[in-house]
Structure formats: structure tokens, C-alpha cells
Specification:
This protein is an alpha/beta fold. Helix content is 44%, strand content 15%. The strands form 7 sheets. Strands 21-22-23-20-19-26-27 form a 7-stranded mixed sheet. A 6-stranded parallel sheet has the order 3-2-1-4-5-6. A 6-stranded mixed sheet has the order 7-8-9-10-12-11, sandwiched between helices. It starts with a strand and ends with a helix.
Amino acid sequence: MNVILTHEHTDFDAVASLLGAHKLFPDYQPVLPRQLNRNVRDFLTLHWDALPFKRQDELPPRTEFERVVLVETQSFPNLKGLEPERLRDVFVIDHHERREDLPPTWRFEGKSMGACTAIFVGHIAERHLALSAVEATLLLLGIYEDTGSLTYAGTTPVDLHAAAWLLEHGANLDVVRDYLNHPLSDAQRALYEQLLDNATFYDVNGYQVLIATARTDNYVEEISTLAHSLRELYDPDALFLLVEMAGHIQIVARATTDAVPVGQLMEHFGGGGHDRAAAAFAEGQALEEVRDTLLDLLRREVRPAVRVVDLMSRGQIRTLQPTETIGAAAALMRRWGHEGFPVIDRQGQVVGVLTRRDVDRAMQHKLGGAPVADFMHKGAITVTPQAGIEQVQRIMTEHMVGQVPVVEGQPPEIVGIITRTDLLKLWGGAPTAGEQRAEIIRRLEAAVSPATLRLVRAIAEEANAMGASLYFVGGFVRDLLLGQPVKDLDLVVEGDAVALAQGLVARYGGRIVTHRRFGTAKWFLNEDERPRDSLITAPGLPDHIDLVTARTEFYEHPTALPEVEESSIKLDLHRRDFTINTLAIALDEDRFGQLLDFYGGARDLAERRVRVLHQLSFVDDPTRILRAVRFAERLGFELESRTRELLVNSLELLERVSGDRIRHELDQIFAEPEPECALQRLDQLGVLAAIDPALHVDAAVVERFRRLRASSLPPDPEAYLALLAYDLSPIERERLAERLMLVRDTRVLLRTMAALREAAPHLTQPELGRSALDHALSEVEPRAIELVALATHNPRLRERLRFYLDELRPLTLTVSGHDLRALGLPPGPVYGEILNAVRAARLDGLVSTPEEERELLAGLVAVRRRHPQA
């Protein structure tokens, strides 16, 4: 016989899963356990004839079981005659990950979701199987009960889609509501009152855990219903009911966070379950003993999945004194964009937090001269780095603040700050999953030479020793995550990069060049007469390492160059241009490989879009307009819609940016493999016209760029710019040269190319001989001729220029000034005139051999002697 089984103390999700499995395996008999929850039992009593279930005592005597489908459990229930080792097949379908101890021969289907029933509904929908209204309602009861009516944290989109599909196929929400809000029996109500009286909260590593105990002489069913009521009342992170009755202690465990592994904890008492719901029976122990054992287990096993240290900003934290004025605080908030500041006393201890809302209200009442102490939220509003995120959320809610100082040590000192914004990113999942960290380490080991990685870890160790932290940041991290070759090692020090570099030189050797004003140091590994440590002499290392102090910046006015100050890694990343460049990888030993993603950069990488960090990004620095397009084209990304809108709205600010900065950004575009792609996009967006109205990229410009790359000329920025400007009029050309502040040599190149274009009618005359063409072009820079040959629309001009470059210019004479000197002709300008005459004769075919060249040379010398003035 083939059967479908589930666990005892059966809830709606388990019974609905029995039904769902029967729909998929109609030859299998769904068998109910002996113990059903009361609301399940009441539903089945009313609708028994419409459902396919059998009770265990209804099975034929001496039933031989061949195949079993286990649903909403990964363990066999007690069933007479069932011998797991004799089964031909076991198929487990569950909404949790496969247990490691399952026999390898058992088949398994499952993934983490709110309700196991949702798995079956998905298959039923795919196969277009029919459901009666009763069946659809039972399936919906299974989903609603295990997901708290789609509100529990473990609920997934799959659960919601399944519920919606069931509603479309006859499920009755009125019936669902009736059976999920079942009134308590008298025995349950009495037990509930006792649990309320004995409920105690415990703080376990930042999580609020509720343990409630009770005793009763009679058996009370469905204690899980009481757990649901208590959870609704108190909303703890985890809940444990310990009820002594009928000679044993029944434990019911519920959790709203994976950090409290209730299934694992219940295994210690011989029970089990899942991450969010579990149960156990304790035999032969006193109630107080079980409670104490549970508390010991909680303190040992519960660790915050995400801690403050994973999210907080470190480094220099700006603070206020209680005596500072509200006006001064407002100015600081405007300057740095902070939503609040910790307030510390003279001993450096936190005495409060001042928020932007407090400041705004005070300023509205014209109280800018009042002290901060009058408006701050008073108290030591702090957390430690090891605290859980739940504790931060409680503090923020209790004190109505959006930022909490992080303190460590005794007496406690501020080591960082955590904000509301830091917590928002948790909505997308934990930021430093172990799998992600392992993958990043794997990528680092593949992309960076072993010698370089050893050096980086040594730098991080040195940084840690001086209280600093080290990170890979920016483009390096972006390219690493995209699987592209990484280039420069962008290392940022959350601390003093110059002091770190000095310590490295003292320990390992080498030489450094520092810029104190910007907090940067360049460590040259191979430049030191003293003996150097083997760490910096190993093969495969770069010539130098750049170390940059984490800093923040602000702009006094739009388009101004930023003012820079030392800061934290978070604020350092915030000053960058686009979210995809704000990623960092921690290199400290205890966090090595941890990805820091404060601004959604990883998601934007995954969704292939370029997005600015804030609304005024292009206003602060309009050159980011060109960078946005360059990154989008290089990576094959799209401009995020709001970013595109902000870009277009900021175009007029480009005219206030210096030509030097504009030219630098254009040079960066010209350095791309196919710069015409970015230039075409810039043209479409109106960016080129904002730089100069005459700039335009059409098919002719694109073709010129391609010809340049196919030619022998180096495709450098100057060459690309010359081809882009080729069609400009003299007025437009000079205006562009002024706008971009072009250097003299580039201006000369543009003018020379324009002159060649204007000379096209003369250079393309059919009667213009070889020597005349050679004479016309002999004084022109060959690079200009090459570029005009690539750029011209005139095929005849291109042909003549190429003929000169390929045929005429390479021609060399066998005679030279030495021959003239040997003939006794005094040196002077006459040398050039005679040699040019010989060259012209050679080009025109009047002479063709070395003997003829020497003969003509001697004849011209003789003429000069007879007619010196000729």
C-alpha cells in the first residue's frame, strides 16, 4: 500500500499538505495521525465526506506499506506495521531545508517558505487540477495558519501567489476566519491565565525571549493555540511555553527570527521542528529544571544573525556638546547631511542624542541660541558592537531617534554609529551571509595574486594594530563582483592612511610619498636601499600600493570642488558617484571578505543599472553626467529612470564646469574600447550640445573612430577628439578649443587638419604631379595627414593622402649632403634646394637609378657654380 503521512499534533498546514499530496499522487492514501489540533478536528468532522482522508484504525489489518510520501515533516510518525527499512520508496516534501541525517536514498523536495501547503498548490496550479470549494478552503487554511494570515516573517511570494490562486478557485475566507479564530475552551482559558501570570522576559544577546510556565492536573490539548495568543499579546522575538501535565512537561516553541533556532533547541529535549516552530516533551524533570536548562541553551546557542558591528559606521564620529547652540547644530547638519548627532559630556560619555527634527522645531521657534541640552533626547542611548539589530530597533522606537551611538570599552567610548538607513537594507536580507562571504573570498583568491593577497592581509593586520580598518573599495569591488578583470587595488583606511604607510615602511621597507592634506600615501615597494622584507619582494606584486584615508566631502556651491575631511568608511563611500561604486570589502582578519553595501550597490549591479546616490549628485558635480554614461556603456547597463531624469535636468550646470575637468572626462571616454558608444548616448541626452552646440556624433564620426582603431595610429584621446571635431567650422573649432582649454599642440593639430581639408581642391587636381603633391605635404605633420585621411568625406582626397603617406613620403634618395660636400659645394640652404630637385626628378620619373641621381646631382652643382645667384 502507498500512503501519505504527516506528524502528530497535526495543524492545518499538515492536513492541507496531506490533501495536496493526494492531488498529485491519487494512488496514495492520505492517512491522518491520531492527534489532531481541535480546530482541525472540528473542520474535518463537518467536511469529512468531501475529503479523501482515512484514520489509522480504518486501514486494513496487517497492511504492507510499499511507498510513503512524508509531508510537512522529515520524520516517520508511529504507524502500526510501518517498517521504514522495508519501504521501496520514501519521498519527503517539506517547506524547510533537507535535514543532514536523512538517508541518501530518500527523495526530497522542499525550500524555505511560510507554509508547506504552498508547494502543493503550485504543482496543482501547474497541472490545472480541479478543486472543490472545500478542498480549496482547506488548502487556504493551511497557508493562512502557518503564515499568520500572510504576516509572519517567513512568508514568501510563493505563499501569497498560492493564496491568491486558491481564492480564485473557490476558497472561502469566512470559513478560514472562523477556524483560525477558534474560541478557547475552559481548560485552555484557565491554563492561559496561569501562563500570563508566570510569563517572564529574558534578554538573550539582544533578543527578547518570553518563557511562560504553568501546571495542570488534566491534559489540555492544543497548547500551540495558547502560544499564538501569547505571541500576539507580547510580540517577543521568541516564545517558549513550558506546561507540566499528565506526568510530563510539554514545551511549545515559536520564534520570529532565525537567530533563535527553536527546532535545534527542542532537539536537546528529544523533540524537534523547524526554524520558527517546534515542540518537545521532557520526562522525569522538574519544571524549574527544564526552564533553567532552556535558559542555558539559549544563552549558549543564540547569536545575532546580524549584529550592530555588521552595519555601523566606524571611524571619526561627529558629536555635540550639551552647551553648543541649536544654531551651530543646524549648521553642522546642513554641512554633513546628518539626521542627528550624539551628545557627549566633557569626559566623552554619551548623555543624549539630538535629531534633525528636534533642531527644526527649535529653529521654527527662533531658538537657535538655545543650548543643545534643552532639546536633545537625554540618556545613555547607546548599543554595543555585538548587540543584535532587534535591540537597535527597540531603542530607536523607544526614544524616537534615527541614529544610535555605538560604544565599547570601560568607560564606554564611541566607536561608531548606526542609523535608520542602515537598518533599511536588512529588508533585502542579511548583508553578510556566510555563502556570500565565502564566494567573495574565492573571487579574491582567483583575481589577485597570492603574493598580493598576503601583502594586503599584512597591511590589514598593521592597520588593526593601530586601531584602523582596511577595505577594498570602488571599481575594484564592482569589477570583482561582475567577474571582470580587476585593475588597481583601491585600498581605503578607516583611520590614518599616512601613519599606516609610515608603519609599513618601518616594518617592511620601501619608500612612501604622502599628501597629508588629502590623507593619501603611495608605498613604493621596490625603492629602498635598505634590506627589504620578503613580503614586499615576492614575485607578482605591483610596483606600489596606494593607501587612502576614508574621508567625506561637501560642496560649498554647485560645481565647486569638494572640501574634504577624514571620516568613516560609510561616509567615504557616500561621497562617491554611483551606487555600483559604493561597495567595499572588509579586509580585517575577523571580517575578511565581508561585503559592505550601504547604498544598494549590489542590487543595482544585479539589475544592471547606474544610479546616483542622492538627488543633488549631478548638482554637486556635473562631471558625473559624463561618468554616468561612460559606466553605463562600458558595463552594458541602463541609466536608472530617476538618474536619467536628474541628469537631463542638470545639463545647464555643465557650462559652469571648467574646461579642464570636462576635457578630463572626455579623455576618460576616449580611453574606452569603443568611445563612440558613450558619445552617441551623450549626444542623444543633449550632453554634447551642453558642452558645445556644434558637437554631434553621426554615422560618419562612428566610422572615423572605427577606421582609427583599424589603422596604425594609436587610438589616443587626442586622435579621437580631432576626428570628432573634424567637421567644425573655424569659429566652432576655436570655440571648442577655448571651452576645453586645449593645449597648444592639440590646437595646432586641429588647425592643420582644417587647412588640409581646405586644400582638398588643390591636392586632388588630376594634373598635380607626384613631386608637386610631395612638395605640398612635405612640411605637414604626418599625424595630421593620417587623421585627415581617416576623417575626410572626399574619397579622392583620402586616396591622394594615402598615396603620399604610403608611396611618396617613404621614398629616400641614395645621394645626400655628404655627396654635395664631396663635390666641394659649401654647406648652406642650397643643399636643401638641390636635394629637393633631385627628389622631385626621382618622383616624376626623370631619374630612376643611383647613378642617375648622382649624375643629376653633379649637374645641378655645376649649374650653381656657373650661376651662383640662380
